Amino acid sequence: MRERPTGQPPMHGNRNAALLQTIKSAVISVLCLLLLANIAVHFLVSPSGKSNLNQTAAANGAKSTANESQKSSLTSSQQSKALSKSNCGIDRRWAKNLSLEEFRSTYRLKRPLLLQFERGAADWLVRDSAWSLDRLAGQFGSYDALAGRPVQIVQNGGRGQERVNFGRFLSDIRNASAGEKRYIFSREFFQSTHMDSTLKFPSIMAYNSRDHDLFLFLGGNNSGVSFHRHADAWNAVVGGRKRWFLYPGDRAPPGGVHHAFEPADWLARVRVPMLTNAQQKVAALIDGSAAAVEPLECVQVAGEILYIPEGFYHATINLEPTLAIGIQNVKPLGATETAFYELNAKPPTEADAIASKILKSMPYNTEVLHKQAMSRKRQEKFQEAEKLLERALSLDSSFLVAMLDLAEIKWKYFSKIKEAQALYTKALELNPNLWEVYGKYGEFLAYQTGELETAVEMVEKATQLQSNELVLWQLLRSIHDFAGNETAVSAADVMIDKLSVIDDQLYDF
Ligand SMILES: *[C@@H]1O[C@H](CO)[C@@H](O)[C@H](O)[C@H]1NC(C)=O
Ligand SMILES: *[C@@H]1O[C@H](CO)[C@@H](O)[C@H](O)[C@H]1NC(C)=O
Ligand SMILES: *[C@@H]1O[C@H](CO)[C@@H](O)[C@H](O)[C@H]1NC(C)=O
Ligand SMILES: *[C@@H]1O[C@H](CO)[C@@H](O)[C@H](O)[C@H]1NC(C)=O
Ligand SMILES: *[C@@H]1O[C@H](CO)[C@@H](O)[C@H](O)[C@H]1NC(C)=O
Ligand SMILES: *[C@@H]1O[C@H](CO)[C@@H](O)[C@H](O)[C@H]1NC(C)=O
């Protein structure tokens, strides 16, 4: 029942997992490199013991987001209300009177679509009572599932990474004081249960177990998933409400698709400032070169089914405890999306050529520019990688992950310390909630500027935001080791041992 399924379909592309792996190996490899080569240098510039975490990071944060405190002082119900406001830019059609011909000519591979049903979910479930949260708790309460935060799920190739008890999770998402923000995003639910026998979707959604993955999506208030893209998919909301943000695939969303912002942070930190910055908006519209500003949006309610054409970038936020069922093509249908899947699966030189091909038809796609930069980096073409990242950032100044990668290239390969420092500071200002910013900045401070104490504060902050990230504990251990703090090294070793075991045992349902 709960065995790890054999064969792993590339849901949001295994690319994201691959990307994370790359980040991890990059951090680890630089640690090794520095440990071998630079110890003497780093001890020469060893810290004065003064902490400047608050002077750099916090002061910058305070300066640039003067209205931040107002924002966070909103009550959670005010926040929910603000999140619920959305003008729907997606066609809503009654499933009953949409023919297969019209679906194919107007929507398939072209436009998102919301299908409505007279009796709601009861029209596409054999027994909708089998899908009440109480019934699910009764039937599957003893199961385990994997849950994750919005960024984690995308990083992890379309699944969570923390094991939770399904029954407990169901009660927590309905309990306001439990504060559960994680999301279950399970491909295994339908493989481990017979619940697929309760589905009777309309014929335009025809699917089979060889060409499609079936998903269970379950999350409480404000859970969700960050921007990503993949093959054709349907998302059927059984209960609850889900807010969508979508962008056509030729432009990546502002802020980038590389798991840098949770959707609520993206809304507050990227989208709202862009929309209120009239100048930027006008410039984007006139020369067409800036990242697209306005997403397509909609709040999908219980009983509706959303069609997401392949290649559309999308992110979601659940506005209530929300249960949904997904169908997703295993393989893309079109040449462009196929190229995107290959871009993430192939070794650097091939990926480079694929990126060039895609960029011919969509020269402003910052995701592809970033991927090409990373493949140049792996081919040790550092100058070209630097140029490509600078171009991506000139198209989208909030592309956080490009900022971090550019900073790293600048200090590691060109010793442009001031430029790197400025980029890290800006990244922290843009999103003080992302563990990777603190991890990367901490690595820079430890190994480049030798500010070990501040580096420890940074990396400790990262572990507070993301306690189960093995690579962070390895980084922290390594910095403590530099500093000769043996107690802290032992404490980090305990975490490293614990996480190494968990890493091997993760499975879902
Ligand atoms: C940083 O500033 C906060 C208040 O802004 C303070 O509570 C904290 O002690 C400071 N940390 C350090 C290391 O100075
Ligand atoms: C803060 O918000 C107020 C309105 O709520 C606005 O008038 C003011 O310009 C904002 N300040 C900044 C720095 O954005
Ligand atoms: C489509 O279906 C809805 C509900 O089933 C019905 O009210 C409506 O009149 C139909 N529209 C057309 C154009 O047939
Ligand atoms: C979810 O948010 C709604 C407001 O939109 C609130 O009424 C409800 O109590 C919240 N539920 C939980 C479990 O937090
Ligand atoms: C709700 O969550 C709180 C905090 O975790 C917990 O103490 C309480 O027992 C929960 N209530 C229920 C009904 O599970
Ligand atoms: C060792 O590291 C821990 C954790 O950061 C810290 O609390 C402690 O003060 C450090 N000890 C020394 C001697 O620096």
UniProtKB/TrEMBL annotation:
In the UniProt record, does the keyword Chaperone occur?
no
Q: Where is the chain membrane-spanning?
A: 21-45
Keywords from UniProt, A to Z, are: Membrane, Transmembrane, Transmembrane helix
Gene Ontology CC: nucleus
Q: Cite the record's Low complexity compositional bias ranges.
A: 69-80
Query: Taxonomically, which superkingdom?
Result: Eukaryota
Q: Which SUPFAM superfamilies does this one have?
A: Clavaminate synthase-like, TPR-like
- Pfam families xref list: Cupin_8
- Compositionally biased region (Polar residues): 55-68
In the UniProt record, does the keyword Transmembrane occur?
A: yes
Q: Which GO terms describe its molecular function?
A: cis-regulatory region sequence-specific DNA binding
Q: Where is the JmjC domain?
A: 190-346
Residue ranges for the region (Disordered) are: 55-80
Question: What PANTHER family does the annotation carry?
Answer: ARGININE DEMETHYLASE AND LYSYL-HYDROXYLASE JMJD (PTHR12480), JMJC DOMAIN-CONTAINING PROTEIN 8 (PTHR12480:SF21)
Q: What is this protein called?
A: JmjC domain-containing protein
